[in-house]
Amino acid sequence: MSVIVDGKTIDAAPRPGQCLRTFLRDTGHFGVKKGCDAGDCGACTVLLDGEPVHSCLIPAFRADGKAVTTVEGLAIDDSLHPMQQAFLDAQAFQCGFCTGGMIVTCASLNQAQKKDLDAALKGNLCRCTGYRAIEDALLGRTHVEEVAAGEAFGRSLPAPAGPDVVRGEARYTFDTAIEGLLHIKLVRSPHAHARIIGIDKTHALAVPGVHAVLTHEDAPATLFSTARHEQDWMDPADTRVLDDTVRFIGQKVAAVVAESEAAAEEGCRRLIVDYEILPAVIDPEAAIAPGAPAIHAGRGSEHRIADVSRNIAAETHGEFGDVAAALASSAATYEGTFTTQRVQHAALETHGGLAWLDDDGLLTVRSSTQVPFLTRRALCEIFDLAPDKVRVFCARVGGGFGGKQEMFVEDILALAALKTGRPVKLEFTREEQFIATSTRHPMRVTVRAGADKDGRLTALQLDVLSNTGAYGNHAGPVLFHACGESISVYNCPNKKVDGRAVYTNTVPAGAYRGYGLPQTTFAVEAAIDELALKLGIDPFEMRRRNIVKPGDPMLTPPGSDHSDVLYGSYGLDQCIDLVERAMAAETPAPKLSDEWLTGDGIALTMIDTVPPDGHFADATISLRDDGGFTLTVGTAEFGNGTSTVHRQIAATVLGTTVDRISLKQSDTAHGGHDTGAYGSTGTFVAGRATQAAAEVLVERIKSFAADRWTINPADCRIADNAVSCGTQRLSFASIASLGEDRLTATGNSQGTPRSVAFNVQGFRVAVNKQTGVVRILKSVQAADAGRVANPMQCRGQIEGGVAQSLGAALYEEIVIDDTGRVVNPRFRDYHLPSYADVPRTEVLFAATHDSIGPLGAKSMSESPYNPVAAALGNAIRAATGIRFTAVPFKPDRLFPQLQEKFGN
Length: 904
What we know:
Blueprint: E1 2-5, E2 8-11, H1 20-26, E3 45-48, E4 51-54, E5 67-69, H2 82-90, H3 99-107, H4 111-114, H5 117-120, H6 132-138, H7 162-167, E6 182-188, E7 194-200, H8 202-205, E8 210-214, E9 245-246, E10 252-258, H9 261-270, E11 272-277, H10 284-287, E12 312-320, H11 323-328, E13 332-340, E14 352-357, E15 363-367, H12 372-383, E16 390-393, H13 410-420, E17 424-427, H14 430-436, E18 443-451, E19 457-469, H15 475-482, H16 485-488, E20 495-503, H17 517-535, H18 539-544, H19 572-584, E21 596-608, E22 617-623, E23 629-633, H20 642-654, E24 661-665, H21 681-684, H22 686-709, E25 717-719, E26 722-725, E27 728-731, H23 732-738, E28 744-749, E29 756-768, E30 774-784, H24 791-810, E31 842-845, H25 868-880, H26 891-902
Parallel strand pairs: 1-5, 6-17, 15-16, 19-20, 23-24, 30-31
Antiparallel strand pairs: 1-2, 3-4, 3-5, 6-10, 7-9, 7-11, 8-10, 12-20, 13-18, 14-15, 14-17, 18-19, 21-29, 22-23, 22-28, 25-26, 26-27, 29-30
Helix pairs in contact: 2-3, 2-6, 12-13, 17-25, 20-22
C-alpha cells in the first residue's frame, strides 16, 4: 500500500492483521505509543486524513491512499505547532508518554469542542498530571519562568526534555530499532496453585521462526525477590526466574523466543504443560487459618519468610503503655474495621525491555525501570556475572508510581539473551500488567482509639492484615511503613500495633505510591474524626491538639532500630491552617436539589523523606570546554521531575543557568551507584549528592582562579558563569581553556539523616442520597515540601497524586474471582480517571526550609496521594452521617446504607 505519513510517502505492505499503530512504529514513527492496544487510552492517537483516530484500532491497510499525521509531523518547518508550544508553555506533561496522543487530539479540536473538554478528551488518558495543566495548555496559559544565572532553585523552570516530549521525539524504552531482534512471549499459568510435572516443547519449537523455549529447567535455581531494595533483609527470597511451582493465575511458566511476536505467540499456544493441581487459598483470613495450604512450603526463615506454615510473609507486633486500660478509662472511644482494595499503577508505558550481548560479552539491558543499579546487582547474583559484565540503563520511562521498583522482565530478558546470543525484546501487554505484575496491597485495618474529655488522645491501636499475594515483594516494608507514620504523627501515650502480611494465591502486591500509608491513614483519620464528633470538637482543632511538634518523639510500636528521622523542618501546623482557611473561603456554590447532601472533611499525613537503612546516590559534575557543565546522576526520570530539579540545584550552586547544565542519568555504565528513584528520594537523596558535587566543584574553580591570581580562594566569588575577585574575572569557558585537566567533582549522599514531610487534604462533597453518586465540590491540599524546588512542577505532582488517589477512592478496583483470576484486566473495565472525572485541586505550600534536604527542599512526589481517601471518607461522613468503611466509594456500595437511612 501507499500512505503519506508526516508528509512523506511510504510504500510498504503491512503484515496480515497489523494495526496502524504497529505499522507506524515499524517505519520509525516512535511518537505513536502503545498504552492499551484496545482504544482505551489515546496514547496512539494520530490524524487520519485530518481526523483523530486511535491507531491501535485501525487496520493498517485502511490507511492506503490516505494521509497520516503523527505528533512528530505536526511541526511546520522545524517550528513547533501552536498546540505543541502551548503544552510546552504550560508544561502540560510529566512522564510524557501520553503527551503525543494528547497533543494530536487537542490540535484537532474546533472551538465548539474546546467548550466541552469533558467530551472532547474522553478518549485520552493521563495518569500523571491530574489534567489541570492540560486544560491550561488549551487555554493558552504559560507557567514557565526565565531566571538569571544562579537563581534557578525555587523557580518554575521547564523540564529539560520538554521540547522533545511535545515533538514526540523523546525516546522511551522501545523507541529504537535493533538489527536481528528476537521477540519474547510468555506462557502463563491458568491455575492459582500447581506443580509443573512436565513441559513438551516439541510442537512449539516446530513453529517457523521459534528459536528457543525456556523453562525452569533452563533457568538458574537462585531464589530472589522481584522487589528492589538496597538491603536484602527487606524482602523474602521466594521467587525464581522460572519456577516449577506456580502460585497465581498469570505466573510465567515458559518463555518462547522467536523472530516475530506472532511466531512467539503461536509457540506459546503450542506448548504443552502438564500440571499437578495443588490446593489454593484466595482469602487472606483463610490463608492464616489452621490447616490452610502452605503456599511456600519447603522455605523458611533463611529465605526471610516470617512463618511459612501460616503463610505469613512478614509481621510486626508491639505496644507502648497499656492500650486496654487507656481505652477503658477514656472519655470517648472508637473502633472500626476498614478495608482497602487492589489497585493498579496503570503507568501508560507497560513493563518491558531489550537485552543484548556485545562482542566483548557485555550483557546490556535497556528497560523501563526505576532502579537500574539494583537491577544490575540482581542480574549479577542470579546469573553469576561480574558487575563489569552487566550494564542496565533506562531511556525516558513512561510512568512508574512504584510499580517499576521491581524486576519483572529483566531476568527473562537476560536469560533469553544469554541462551540465544541474540538481541531480545519483551514488552508486556496491558492485560499482563493487570494479571502478572503487582498491585497495591489490599488491607483490612482495625483501629481502636480513645481520647480524654479535652480531646487528647489516650490510646491508638492498629490491627492490620495485608494481602501480599503469591510473592512477598515489598510485603514487610509496606506493612512496617503502613504502621509507622500513620500513628507516629500523633502524640499518644499508649499505642499498640499488630500487623501481618499474608501470602495468598493471587496476583502479587508490591510497591505503590504511598507505600501502605493510604490504607492505614484511611482508618486512623476516620477514628480521629469520630472522636472529635463524640467530644464536640472541631476536626481541625482535634488534630491541632494531638499532632507531633518539633521536640516530640515520633513513636510507633514496636520501635525501630533506625533513629535518624529528624524534624529537618516543620510545617504541619501551617498546612492545617492553610486548608482550614481555604475551606472556609467563599466559593461559587452549585445549585443542588434536595437529593444532595453536602459535607466537608479533612485528613493529614506525615511521611519520612527516605526509606530506612540507607539509600545511596552518587553524582559527578564536570566543567566542559564551552564553559557549561555535564552532570551525571543515577536516578531515573519517569515524570517525577528529578531531571529538572537536579539541573536547578547544580545551576544555583554554580552560579549559572540550567541550559548550561547537560544531564546524563540512569545508566550503570556511567559509574557510581544510585539505589533508585523510589521512596520520594530523587530530590531529597540524589539531589543532596548533586549539591555536594557542585559545591566541591565550586571550591575547585575558586582554587584554580586563586592560584592564577595569587590570592586566597575564600576571596573569590562564583556568579554569572564566572569566578571573580574584585575587578579580576575569569569566565568558566576561560578556565576550561586554561586548565590542563578537566575540572571534575563528585558528591555522595547516604540517605541519612532523614526528615519528614506533611500533607493535609480537604474536600467538600455532595452525595446523592437516592443514587449514591459522590460529587466533589471543592478540593484543597496543603503541603510542607520545605523550600519548594520548582513550584510549578511540585504543584503538578500534588495535583497528579490527588487525581490518582481519587481514582482509587472512588472507582478503581482490580476484581479477583473465587478462583484467583483477575476478571477486569483492561482499562475499559477498570475506570481510570479521565479529564471529566478529576476536580481541580487548590494547592498551597507551607513556608519552611529543611535543614537536611538539598537547598532546603523535601520530598513531595509520593505523599500527596496519602490523605485523599481518608479526607474523602470524612467528607462523606459529614454529609450523610454514615461512616463508610470500605473503598472505593462506588455508588452501588454507598446506596444500600443510604437507602436504609433515607429511604426512597
